[in-house]
């Protein structure tokens, strides 16, 4: 049996969304039996041992599939790299409604013309942003079709936790690089106002903000009761212990490709309140999560069509009170999520779906590739 030879051109790092996704994707491809080779555009230690070992393999063409998993601005293939693979897939995400603020957007059609067989986007917002640039014209007649496929995560790292839902203490949290796009300020303001409006009832509530970038002044802890800020890079074991103490993760993001901390939190049985826009909608369901209302805002008046979500502070307050008061419902949703999310969003499933997308969207090249993959994994439909 001949393995599928795959070249992954991507960033590999535990410190970024793209980097973590590339690590997870690569591990799942290897687990499926594929013969994987790496062409790193960024590589930041520490790397998992199984990934570091792949760095020793020489890049000898031809490859059956190239997966180019990077930011839209970095989607550029050198001719020798393009020629090295029989099938070439670009896979990317974008957190705003258009690419108007992308520095090199003018060259996008040229960069895509004839270079890729397929473009996969994480969510409908990303797909809509690319749509104007993927229209075929006489000058650019070899632009790829566009499909949807959201990245995954490794659920084996995040097991269910039987939290204490009965004690008065109730912990909200945010996790990640809490910059402007994550919009921690709307969560802080909602929390502060609830503390002022319900001083006795909401007294047991706490808000824990875990970040690894500067931007939240430590003095906020003195101004807002039971607000705690953590400026650290934590190993996985410490992050797991942190999730175990939390009840609800807040994700009032202005845009997401997926939101890894939300998936991790739900896997452990915690609940999530998240902006109902962008990558969140790929996994969002009111049966096991709390969709957060939003309006669309324009971050830069030079680009009026380039919009992002602005989470509703008032609706966030309503939802925070709801989960705080109705612990039984919150717990039930977390338990449902802990069963649904790992099945729906695991990298193993996403890799299966990747080969199905290639098969269905570019059948001339994709059908033989899928059949080759199916022989390895026995996943033929």
Description:
The protein is α/β, with parallel strands linked by helices and 381 residues long. The chain has two domains: 5-152 and 346-377, Rossmann fold (3-Layer(aba) Sandwich), CATH 3.40.50; 156-345, 3-Layer(aba) Sandwich (Rossmann fold), CATH 3.40.50.2000. It is built from 13 helices and 14 strands. The strands form three sheets. A six-stranded parallel β-sheet has the order 2-1-3-4-5-6. Helix 3 (79-83) links the parallel strand 3 and strand 4.
List keywords for this structure.
381 residues, alpha/beta, Rossmann fold, six-stranded parallel beta sheet, 13 helices, globular
- The whole-number mean of residue pLDDT values reads 95
Under CATH at level 1, the class of the largest domain stands as: Alpha Beta
Q: What is the tally of beta strands? A: 14
What is the count of distinct domains? 2
Topology of this structure?
Elements: E1 5-12, H1 17-31, E2 35-43, H2 49-54, E3 63-69, H3 79-83, E4 85-92, H4 108-112, E5 118-121, H5 124-130, E6 146-148, E7 170-175, H6 184-197, E8 205-211, H7 220-223, E9 227-231, H8 236-245, E10 248-251, H9 260-267, E11 271-275, E12 290-292, E13 294-297, E14 308-311, H10 313-325, H11 327-345, H12 347-361, H13 363-377
Parallel strand pairs: 1-2, 1-3, 3-4, 4-5, 5-6, 7-8, 7-10, 8-9, 10-11, 11-12
Antiparallel strand pairs: 13-14
């Amino acid at each position: 049996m001949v393995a599928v030879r795959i070249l992954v051109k991507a960033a590999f790092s535990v410190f970024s969304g793209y980097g973590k996704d590339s690590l997870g994707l690569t591990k799942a491809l290897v687990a499926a039996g594929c013969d994987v080779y790496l062409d790193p555009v960024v590589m930041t230690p520490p790397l998992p041992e199984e990934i570091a070992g792949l760095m020793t393999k020489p890049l000898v063409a031809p490859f059956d599939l190239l997966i180019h998993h990077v930011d839209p601005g970095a989607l550029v293939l050198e001719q020798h790299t393009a020629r090295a693979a029989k099938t070439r897939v670009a896979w990317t995400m974008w957190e705003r409604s258009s690419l108007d603020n992308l520095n090199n957007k003018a060259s996008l059609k040229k960069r895509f013309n004839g270079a890729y067989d397929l473009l996969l986007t994480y969510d409908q917002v990303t797909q809509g942003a690319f749509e104007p640039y993927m229209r075929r014209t006489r000058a650019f007649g070899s632009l790829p079709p566009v499909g949807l496929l959201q990245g995954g995560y490794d659920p084996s790292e995040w097991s269910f936790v039987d939290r204490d839902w009965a004690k008065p203490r109730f912990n909200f949290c945010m996790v990640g690089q809490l910059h402007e796009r994550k919009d921690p300020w709307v969560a802080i303001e909602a929390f502060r106002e609830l503390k002022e409006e319900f001083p006795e009832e909401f007294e047991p509530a706490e808000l824990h903000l875990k970040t690894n970038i500067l931007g939240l002044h430590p003095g906020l802890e003195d101004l807002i009761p039971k607000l705690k800020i953590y400026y650290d890079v934590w190993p996985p074991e410490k992050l797991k212990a942190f999730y175990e103490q939390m009840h609800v993760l807040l994700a009032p993001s202005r845009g997401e490709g997926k939101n890894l901390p939300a998936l991790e939190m739900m896997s452990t049985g915690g609940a999530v309140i998240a902006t109902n826009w962008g990558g969140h909608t790929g996994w969002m369901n009111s049966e096991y999560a709390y969709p957060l209302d939003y309006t669309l805002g324009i971050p830069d008046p030079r680009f009026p069509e380039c919009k992002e979500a602005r989470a509703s502070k008032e609706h966030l307050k309503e939802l925070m009170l709801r989960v705080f008061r109705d612990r039984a419902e919150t717990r039930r949703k977390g338990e449902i999520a802990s069963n649904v999310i790992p099945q729906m969003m695991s990298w193993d499933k996403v890799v299966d779906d990747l080969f199905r997308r290639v098969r269905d969207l570019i059948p001339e090249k994709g059908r033989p590739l899928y059949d080759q993959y199916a022989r390895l994994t026995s996943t033929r439909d």
